[in-house]
Write a structure and sequence with these properties.
single chain; 166 residues; mainly beta; five-stranded mixed beta sheet; three-stranded antiparallel beta sheet; 8 strands
């Protein structure tokens, strides 16, 4: 992907050491960030991997990151207080939080892996290894950024099967 309307965009490439995994194995992902000319980018990214069914329940729940930062904004000012919401009943006086949590018993989590801060090396590369479990297709989502505000995101599937179901 090139620069959209002159705005910096990065490409995120992901490769896994296997096409699918058996529950209990370790997966290794190699992630590479490049600019619109294909040159390596040193940057930071977050990686979240959850059961793909979570995203199937809510289509379009992963909006394009680039559009969240670069969109048309009208020329306007706000001369009111930034504390308006606190006095309108959205502050601490609403209560909640604290005290006596309960456990619903053991449950397999829909979350396989989460790391909000991974840095690449000077070649724009990072390698992540983590244990896999379950018997499902996971969807991994990566959001990346550089100090020069080059932005990118990538989604890909990670298949995990129980032994004997490969």
């Amino acid at each position: 992907a090139g620069a959209a309307a002159g705005r910096p965009v990065m490409t995120i490439d992901v490769t896994s050491d296997k096409p699918q995994y058996v529950s209990g194995e370790k997966a290794t992902l190699k992630i590479r960030l490049t600019n619109s000319q294909g040159e390596p980018l040193a940057g930071e990214f977050s990686l979240g991997i959850v059961d793909k069914a979570v995203y199937a329940l809510r289509k379009g729940s992963i909006p394009p990151m680039h559009s969240s930062f670069y969109y048309y904004r009208s020329r306007a000012t706000n001369n009111s207080s930034s504390m308006t919401y606190i006095t309108a009943g959205y502050g601490a006086e609403m209560g909640g939080g604290g005290g006596g949590g309960t456990s619903m018993g053991p449950k397999e989590s829909d979350l396989l892996y989460w790391d909000p801060f991974i840095e690449t090396d000077e070649n724009g590369e990072a390698e992540i290894t983590f244990p896999v479990s379950g018997n499902t297709i996971y969807q991994a989502v990566i959001f990346g950024a550089t100090n020069n505000t080059e932005l990118g995101q990538k989604e890909f599937d990670l298949v995990v099967r129980k032994a004997g179901q490969e």
